[in-house]
């Protein structure tokens, strides 16, 4: 089975098909971003594609994507565009959800819930229970980046004040440089997630999670993730192909 996996994050684009992979060192902006993604896809595809999986850094609803962190992609129907180009099935999923599926797979596919938190350009989480992504009624389950930890804090891109993202995301840390504050905000969010979901484990990933200062400040509250958003996209595409 030939599966094409694509990743769109706040800082880069990536593509993988079999043993072939390609990525941009920085993410192009605006309409150039979409064309660059298609170019990467063509670089890794060397034959017919059975299924396509996409990990996208923002909310996804019925194949349409929205994000505060990926300008130029507002309301893009990525599902239909890729389906016309490569044929169905195509699955487009939020990056944290895709990575959570990868974590679930790496852990031996347990029936118990597992959670994955990404700390990157934004902060989000994916939850897998009985092998299925927990989506919520508006496909926004796990958006812990918009969990309010400081009601009097800075205004978030979502419109609320004091969200975890305003303190613990990469851009926020770049502004204030306080890893202790970032770890404190993440810890509150992680504790709330654990209290509600009671997961088998919580994995932490994303580019910012590699910062030693953040790990030291967290004090072992979470474990380093083994998966990547691309791996989760591959699993989603394999599932879609098997069900087609």
Care to describe what's here?
The protein is an alpha/beta fold. It folds into two domains: 107 residues, ATPase, nucleotide binding domain (Nucleotidyltransferase, domain 5, 2-Layer Sandwich), CATH 3.30.420; 128 residues, Nucleotidyltransferase, domain 5 (2-Layer Sandwich). The protein has eight helices and 13 strands. The strands form three sheets. The protein has a five-stranded mixed sheet with strand order 3-2-1-4-8. A hairpin with a 2-residue loop joins strand 2 and strand 3. Helix 3 packs across helix 8 and helix 6 crosses helix 7. The radius of gyration is 17 Å and the shape is globular. The model has no long low-confidence stretch (mean pLDDT 87).
What are the defining features of this structure?
Nucleotidyltransferase, domain 5, 2 domains, 13 strands, 8 helices, alpha/beta
Task: Map the helices and strands.
Blueprint (H helix, E strand, L loop, with lengths): L2 E6 L4 E5 L2 E4 L7 H14 L6 E6 L3 E2 L2 E2 L10 E2 H9 L3 E5 H12 L7 E6 L3 E7 L2 E2 L31 H4 L1 H7 L2 H19 L4 E4 L6 H7 L4 E2 L4 H15 L1
Parallel strand pairs: 1-4, 4-8, 9-12, 12-13
Antiparallel strand pairs: 1-2, 2-3, 5-6, 6-7, 9-10, 10-11
Helix pairs in contact: 3-8, 6-7
